[in-house]
Structures are given as C-alpha cells and as structure tokens.
Amino acid sequence: MTDTDAATVTTPDAAALHQIVDGVFAWVQPDGTWWINNAGAVTGAEGTIVIDTCATEQRTRRFLAAVRAVTGDAPLTMAVNTHQHGDHTYGNSLLPASTVLIGHEAMREGLLADPIIDGCPPVWQPVPDWGRVTRRVPSVVMRSELTLFTGSRRVELRHPGRPAHTTGDVVAWLPEERVLFSGDLIFHGVTPLMFMGSVDGALASLGRLADLDPEHVVPGHGPVITQAGLPDALAGIERYYRLVQQTAQAGRREGMTPLQAARHCDLGEFATWPDAERLVLNLHRAYADATGAELDLVQAARGRGGVQRRPDGQRGLRTVPDVASGTRSTLSQPRLPPSSARPVGAGPRTIASYGYGGTDEP
Ligand SMILES: [Zn+2]
After folding, report:
1. Of 228, 258, 281, which residue is a domain's last?
2. Cα(219) to centroid(ligand 1), Å
3. Structural domain boundaries, residue 8
4. What are the tens digits of pLDDT across the range 182-196?
5. Ligand 1 geometric centre to CA of 33 (Å)
6. Same structural domain, 211 and 300
7. Average pLDDT of the chain, as a whole number
8. How far is the CA of 220 from the centre of ligand 1 (A)?
9. Which of 196, 228, 260 is the last residue of a domain?
10. Which strands make up the sheet holding 171-174, listed edge to edge?
11. How far is the centre of ligand 1, averaged over its atoms, from the C-alpha of 324 (Å)?
C-alpha cells in the first residue's frame, strides 16, 4: 500500500507497515482516533525491538505478522511501551514470552491499575472488541533514560521529565537515523489528550522533541511526520494546548465547570481534528492542575464528562446511563448556550456542534 492509499482509507483495516529508513518501520493505523494507535519496529543484528503494541488482539496480530514478514526469523528481543494506555499496551500479551518488555515505572504502575482491560465502561461507541488479550506489564522499568541496542543500532528511551500525556511517557529516539517514535506526546491531525498527564507538561515536552531535530517522527496517532512538516505540526499542537489553558483560565474566572467552559469554547482551526470532545477531559485536567485537586478519571470520562456519538456517526465517546441510579442522566440532553445551537459550520465550532451530551458536574 502506498502512503497515498493509506491516507485515503480511514479504518484500522487499512493499517500498513511503512519503512521509515532502512530497517526502521512504522505501523500506522488510520484514522488514528480513539484506540487506533501507531506502533513501530527497529531491526538490527541482534533482533527486533518493538515499540508499542495495539489495543486489540486482531490489530496486534496484524501488526506482529507484518513485522515478521519483513524480519523473517529474527527474534523480537525487546519491546517498549511509550505509555500505559491500552491502545499501546493491551497487545503486550501477544508478544513472545521471551521478549523483554520495558517501560517507565509509572507506566507499569498505571497498567497494573488499569480497570478498562478487565471491563470496558460503556463510554466508547462502539466498545472495542479486545479479543484474547491479558494484562502484561514491563519487567524492566526506567525513570529518565535507558539506551537499547540491537547490534550497532542505538535506541534511546527518554522520559520528558514531568507528566505530559501521562505520568510515565517515554519516547524512542534513534540518534543515528534521526527517527523519533514520540508516542502520544504527538497526535498528528487528531485532537491531543492529556487528561492523565499535565497540560503544562505536555506543552513543555514539545520543545524537547523539537530540540532533537528529527528527520522523521512516528506520532502516537496519525500519519508519519517529515522533517519539513514537523514545525507546523508542533505549532498546531502548541496552539491547541494554549487554547485549553486559556479556556480553563477563562472558565475558572467565570465560575464555569469544565463542561460549561468546553461548550463555550470556539474550537476554531481544531474543529476539523477528530475526537474534539477530548476538550472536556483536557479541561478537567487543566482545572485539576490549577487547584491541585485529584481528578476522578472515570467520572470525567463517563457521565460527568461523557460525549455522545458525533452526528456524522463516527466513533467516539458517548453519554452513558447513570449507572448508580439506573436512569439516563438527567442532563443527557445538552443544555446548549444559544450560540452553539447553530448547525456545524454556521458559527463557532464548539463541542456542542459535535453532539456533546455529557452532564454537568454536581
Ligand atoms: Zn494512544
């Protein structure tokens, strides 16, 4: 499949292994939305280093089969998880038992505590079909840096120094080949998510990635980024982070909840990025960081910050019945501010334009 084909097909069925430089591969799954991640493989004289797995059994098996098709009998000696999220880790159990699995120590703790692999809350539409995957966590953990080799090929694992997308992010940097596997520190053309990390930290991490001056970037989601395209890609993500910060500041000043602030936010240029509803979750994080409060991730993601399937029928978060009372959330019909009652394209592109139907916080 050519890059052009991959760009025009928008389901994970169109996933393809792209050779970035000789022996370095990116597994890119369109369209990069919820649970549809990228992964990678770095080959060398002592075997292959895998970077991330996928959310489901089927997707991970396809990824590993594609890697084996280009590496033959070479062993999968090591695998790295860029962070704890299931789209990058649930397929770990399908790696050979002999593969040494590596991640940040906070990533390991996070996957051990992950409740979704055991019983996915009915927050996503459709609920992913995990298949036969089981929880497998790293047996080697790191804090700041760790360097891997396969033969003479060097892979540097680096933590951004503070919470960003999550608390245990790691990028894989190949200094000789100038290839960066960024994990979810970079979403390319897809709305970023940092509700389990830090908005300020995610913003700060962009400069560290730019300083590497990579020639190729494999983002956690979305198409591979060239050296020429990187400044624009990073600048767009930075503007999104700043929009989240400004929206949170204004919302707190006005006494709005994160949801209310999201509904009043004009997404502007980011309205075309899939998974726009992540703004609500990102605002929950910005609010929690500003107040030092603990963020209830599950409550933020389900009724308290849930989002309906978008009107165009694409996947995404959706509202769920109030589990405690057994009734539909009383606020599941969105209370739209007047400006957001306009149809999409007729005014400010707000969360409400995307069928937002979550509930306000008590
Ligand atoms: Zn991801």
Report:
1. 228
2. 9
3. 3-228
4. 999 999 999 999 999
5. 9
6. no
7. 84
8. 6
9. 228
10. 145-150, 153-158, 171-174, 179-187, 216-221, 225-226
11. 29
